[in-house]
Amino acid sequence: MRALTLITFLGALCRSLTENISYTSSPNIIIMLMDDMGWGDLGVFGQPSKETPNLDAMAAEGMLLPNFYTGSPLCSPSRAALLTGRLPIRNGFYTTNAHARNAYTPQEIVGGISKDEILLPQMLKTKGYVSKIVGKWHLGHRPQYLPLKNGFDEWFGSPNCHFGPYNNSIRPNMPVYNNSEMLGRYYEEFKIDRKTGESNLTQIYLMEGLDFIFRQTKAQQPFFLYWAPDATHSPVYASKRFLGKSQRGRYGDAVMELDYSIGQILNSLRILGIDSNTFVFFTSDNGAALMSGPNESGSNGPFLCGKETTFEGGMREPAIAWWPGHIKEGSVTFQLANVMDLFTTSLVLAGISPPDDRTLDGLDLTPVLFNRPHTLKNRPIFYYRGNELMAVRLGQYKAHYWTWSNSWAELKKGINFCPGQEVPNVTTHTQKEHTLQPIIFHLGRDPGEKFPLSVLTKEYQDALSRISAVVKEHKETLVPGMPQLNMCDMAVMNWAPAGCEKLGKCLKPPTSEPWKCNWPH
Amino acid sequence: MRALTLITFLGALCRSLTENISYTSSPNIIIMLMDDMGWGDLGVFGQPSKETPNLDAMAAEGMLLPNFYTGSPLCSPSRAALLTGRLPIRNGFYTTNAHARNAYTPQEIVGGISKDEILLPQMLKTKGYVSKIVGKWHLGHRPQYLPLKNGFDEWFGSPNCHFGPYNNSIRPNMPVYNNSEMLGRYYEEFKIDRKTGESNLTQIYLMEGLDFIFRQTKAQQPFFLYWAPDATHSPVYASKRFLGKSQRGRYGDAVMELDYSIGQILNSLRILGIDSNTFVFFTSDNGAALMSGPNESGSNGPFLCGKETTFEGGMREPAIAWWPGHIKEGSVTFQLANVMDLFTTSLVLAGISPPDDRTLDGLDLTPVLFNRPHTLKNRPIFYYRGNELMAVRLGQYKAHYWTWSNSWAELKKGINFCPGQEVPNVTTHTQKEHTLQPIIFHLGRDPGEKFPLSVLTKEYQDALSRISAVVKEHKETLVPGMPQLNMCDMAVMNWAPAGCEKLGKCLKPPTSEPWKCNWPH
Known about the structure:
Largest sheet of chain A: 10 strands, mixed
Shape of chain A: globular
Largest interface: A-B, 42 and 43 residues
Oligomer: homodimer
Number of helices of chain A: 13
Strand content of chain A: 15-25%
Distance between the termini of chain A: 41 Å
């Protein structure tokens, strides 16, 4: 069903519905998480093509957060951080196989989200929330790691990225699940034309989201929708009606379709009369993947480098909070915030006490969102790459303890995390340690991290002294989680996901031969 | 008088005035030209600090032009282009002393705007407009080149930049004129504290602008105000109340004060009831001066390099058109446009036929501004550096025929036009010719000019073929103006500007010893 048709349908029903609905105090929660979308991809964040009218309107109706961060410059750990409210170094989404390497959950990964972690939907369930994830999961694909085993009531989407394989010869194509059973596979039942970039997946994800919103509204049950489409991850895709429409090429087509879909979702909330009872947050999992540029990459605006790195381009994200009647329209907060705050904030909104048996990295942002007096100003942002704390931001100052873009070997293969950018001693192609004399930038004057403060200045010494105290405390109290992303095995791939028998789509796994995963970045 | 006091005063008078005012069809015209402000300095263009609420509101009430260009990457020629509607290569604001060098009007320059050029205020006078320039002139400082000899009725400001000298030992301090007589000098009567950055010059320029608007409104005469403050040119300055207020340091303080002042001007138009009869255009003279970064430089957002260069960062400018009731609020145009269009457009708005005895580079933008059917889409943008056509944009394609950032010699001195940016074969430190095989970028997919199209592609060949035709026609029909910026002489400096006798501030000029100016960039 096309979005407009469904919305018309919803509109026809809403009058009779809204009269009868009596909500609890628990607002609905929608987190929209984009894939590899960069800070600079939105008109409101300075994209010259200005092709995101719905997101720009969302910002005009809500709050913009220019200092919002992810929990990791890579997809799996950043998504685990969002759903657990904890840094990947705590929740186990890292590796000890290699120093400062970004690890994630490819098909051959043995691990996934630990059963010791508490996920946002699990907590929300205690207050009667029904939760659905639409789109990419990426917290592990073996049965015990899947969404319905981890608090979600519904799921439509895939456990992994759609970036391949593109046939089942060596590795199985990614399965697409409807709840606990596979519905088909990418490139088979769920087409993505690699040549034209055509796929109607975003439309399907939109329909799945709208359908859930409608059903929950009708059932008068509070809901949590985690809407995680992946059209902007390479290979980027868009529906026929959006292909060729953007000034920016195919990546822009994908952005336009996501922007359209977000407009449809917000509009459906209005039509259903639940906009003033629904908190919506838009952001992305990590910075734009500049190594896929220019055709398949987004923009990190004025920031340095992108995905995979701990420069601002890798971890500063576009972010908009929206809740008509609760969040002041057209507002901006400069509060340093991150995806882990969404965990804590969502719980507070739902009237649930966050778990007190573990360290949480997320803070309650409600005082900021609702413009109440607050004292969050001095919270640090930690930039990890795998098991190494690469950098820390405190206020406007960011200290780099380690720098690394990518290796010389990768660069020679044409993979460049910082194309066209080169800051001496900063965008290094070896893992370079600066712990004795961190490189410090003032991100207000120098958001692009191009002009290190001189170590001889009082400003440097003052900033270092304040950041050092924070780092010391952080390291002294840190209890790293058990690393989940160390082991790989071809046998654990998506050969025979639940439901494959009914579809006749089970593949035969090879013999189990585990190895220590190799992480190049 | 403080701005608020004056505005209150205006407000008290406006009721009685507006009832009696009957306008001609000629709208008032205000062009606000910033100095070295970059595309990325406005919140609406993605500045992370978002400290320009008045400009952002101006955009929300008017039209944003993300593809707006200056006529040169340097101050004097770009200002000459704006006021003549002609490229500097035609109006003489270039040099033949050295290939592809940016030339401007320092104190020792002998030349200035040619008497053969027709300036915007001269044309507007034919329809009864009264014109005032507030701020920086920069079209030559010898008596015959000054504003009141070139069509302006009033002037408050300086013929040159305030970047020095800072005493009268070798060169005189810059004079500040009130109309045809000097009122004092920078760093003497008109203080700029080089240590603290404190100066009330922007407030003075605001008052001068408001006073002119008020007088013209009272006199019921259409006016042209060319408001050209220079607070964002290094050494940047701000009034005490703005110093230290920005997240971005002193440069940001200057931006905040300009933003405040622009808000005051627009508000005064509303209070006087002439907002629907006043066309206002905001832009800048060239890209942010990255070589002054980070403390004294703005941001060019996602674009490559800055001032002095023909990359996008050097010539793409922030631009907003505002005219309540005439220009649709919150609109955006992707039309390629430039400062020379302001000449032609202003004439059309005033009901004046542009001069037909010379080539004009400016086009009439009114169909775009008023959203009428139009066919300007395919106009090219020419990027000159001095006497050399470095690059041409047509549609989304930009072909570089020559590349150059700055020389190795300058780079070694620490002057860097592209700090932190390095695109092989593009940000070259020699003047590199590519005329046989231009470097072509698709600015939609790659606004940062980082990924040259492969010459083997059909896309490259098609783009080249279209651009080549435009270049051929341009070069064949080009009649370069007499170069005005070749000769220098210490004797022509501002030793004894008109009015210096009354003030006792005349200095003794040295003997005339002209030489061919040396242009490093």
